[in-house]
Target: GH116 family glycosyl-hydrolase
Amino acid sequence: MMNIIIKHLFCFIWVCAAVVSLSAQTDNYGAGNANKRFMPSLGMLGGKTEFDYLNLKNHPGNSGVPLGGIGAGNVQFAPDGRFARIGMNNIHLPIKKSKASFFSVWYNDGVKSDAHMLVNDPNPQYGISPVQEIYYKGLFPQAEMNFGNSVKGIDIKIHAYSSLIPHDVKNSSLPVVFFDVELQSEKDGEVAVAFSWEDFIGRGIKEPESIEGMDGQIFSHGRDRLCNGEAWPDRAPEQTFTEKWDCGRLSGIRQFAAKPLEPIRANFQNYVNEVVLLAEKRDDMQLSVLPAYDIASGAQAWKGFKDNGLFGNADRDISFLSTPHKQDGGSAIALKTKIKKGEKKTLRFILAWYYPEIKIDRKNDMPEYYWVGGSDYGRYFHNYFNDLTSLVDYAYQKRSYLLEKTSEWQQPVLNSTMPDWYKFKLINSAYVIYTNMILNKKGDMTVNEGGMGGLAGTMDQRISSHPFYQKFFTQLDRSEMDIFADAQQSKGNIPHFVGHYYIGMGTVGGRVPTEDSWMTDNTGGWIIQLAKDYQQTGDIKYLRQHTGRVHDGMDFLKSLMPANLEIPIGPTTYDDFTHPPVYSYGAGIYLATLKAAAVISKAVGDIIKEKEYNGQFIRTQKDMMRVLWNGRFFSYGCEIDGSGRLDNILFTGQLGGQFVSRYCGWGDIIPMDMVKASLISQFKISLSKTPDYYANKVWDINQNKGIDNRGSQCWPFYLESYTGYPAFQAGYCADALEIMKHIQLVHLRKGWTWCQNLWNPAELSYMTAPVTWFSTDVLAGAGLNIPDRELRLAPVINGKDKVVLPLFYPTFWATLTIEPKTKKLSLEIIKTYGNNNVTLSRIVSEPNGESTGNRQIVEIPEFSVKEGNVLDLSPYWERIVRINTDKAILPQADQVDFITVK
Model:
């Protein structure tokens, strides 16, 4: 009896301790509010499934390819010819649409002249007719637009681009956009192109009415409500002006405020105070300018261009542009030239913006004005350019190089044999690096979550969102990882956030404004990504810097285990719907974390810790199966003692840990027959019953419907990574691709390709869209372990067609070519970075649909990873390549039996 009393007393004490430790977790950091902002998406699913992805016709213009730079602001050139989601000033809450930012053309073929707005609107603007057709090729950060037969007698193509060059942060963080307008005429004639830009200086900026009380941690004393920048009022508009402006061979208009815009409180919005729209001057072209016009009544201002392709001569050096209370202004420039029959001409335009660095006077500024313990508020380009002239001149001189190197990372994708929808999805999913990434002068980086009041550096989402910048901007990826490491709390936990768009961000050696925020997968996710970085870079020095923090984090997770259970209990990323304490996602991610910690311990020679984590893995895996496996899938969750198991709720996140572990090369954490059974259950019960397979993450089997909170129809990015990718790994390749394709279709049909939402089909720039960059490895069954000189490869082929797949890693890129007819298999190294001394001596094949325990290990002659080298793997064809014989499950899910695993 006494033993029973002691046992119950211990459990009571543990529960009390858990309540105390989780007291900071009662708030879901804004997820609830974010869900309420978006209505359920009933009736918005299903529809057109086939698009000409690389030539979209008359596509909705709710979003477009973002153009600008990392941390420097962006504007989106939309498929309807307008500019949308203008984030020059505020990337978190961009201005949805511009009234007066567009291109226009005037053409005279010697018989008659005509003018057209190069926008696909139903009504004329300023007396100028719109075009009837626009064909749009959007591949971030480039967009091409042509207009079919809309403008008789002349072909027009606009090529818009900005710079994004892997591992070159300087040239990827420039607030500069290039527009090359290519013309070809059917007759001798004259043509003019105008570029108009609306005044956005000081517009769309949110500022608090008072900064009182903003001098401390966000998650204390109700300060989170003060810091929610989405609720701040708009900053009062500025009086703005224009003047003629020249920079070398460029000439045009400068829009500006009389003085730099001073923030009420320092933050990461861009206080742009000058914008230029410029054209390249040439002897055979005539430049005319419209310094300022009222965009509400601009017909008279545009009459000269409409009639003869020229704006009237400006009679003043400086003109008023916009007034604070009455007039919104715009500016325009035009190039006019003669053109011969069949001749091709290119007219070049540039848009650029600038804002001075926000500098903190740490001796005299009020502590409420800035985040005292954190990093600076400058931008990376402030390291190199202290004025607009130097910025524009540099970008113009480097424009060809910038375009070449930006196109370079896209070309292997476009050269692949994957379908156009996949190429489109993969390249464009990278847009978040412009729309959400915060990058300051010091080089500290964090990512704005989106729809969360400004919270940034979201580690739980980072597990899925990081692949693009980890592969292509490892320096930035490590910056955020280092800030998380430095912000590790005294209990050993890695925090949930490390920054805030409207408040500030942490820095190594400082503090973060978001302490006391954690989830179990924050610590686990950080450890997993650290281990993956080590394997893909081979950088043992970097790993050793953080090894102590890894052990502290693992001790913290172990401290969350209650008596008689080997699974940590605590909140996870799935924070918008109640779940029991024992949770299938949390348990699975912990198993992957144990694998990662063992990899790290082995790398640094800590045999004791490696043994400890491997032993814990066995115990935790056993408990996960004991309390959560119901024979067909892992239950949503249960109570600590195993009671109350929710077998009636099917959850799309249950295989999260399985995907991560297998992707990283650490093997299955769950037997493959259980993985397949889980996926078949998801396919039959929820995905196949939902249009576009866009299923709720939480599905009540008894009610036969999703039961997520209002506004939370689906978590599409996690559906991709934790259902779609495990499906590919389990051999359901066709189904995985269909899930990926339809997640895109849901956003694409509404014109939301470049502003996707986590919770439902709605307009929001959410951080996790780059999850698709896992897929280059998943499709090839690929992975890299540089310290072990190991490359994993297990491509799947259908039929006899040649397959070409791109592979990207931080230190090199490669192309994998598979030719079934001749059984030729080769890997060509197409790009290397850094002091690349990478060699490979082993190929590991873990075929999709089979347990990793059945892997094939192929020893090969030492291969040096150098640009141009080709590794011929044809002799090992039978051991590496898998012929796909599996039929798609989703289209015939009702005809497929459940799999039961005891």
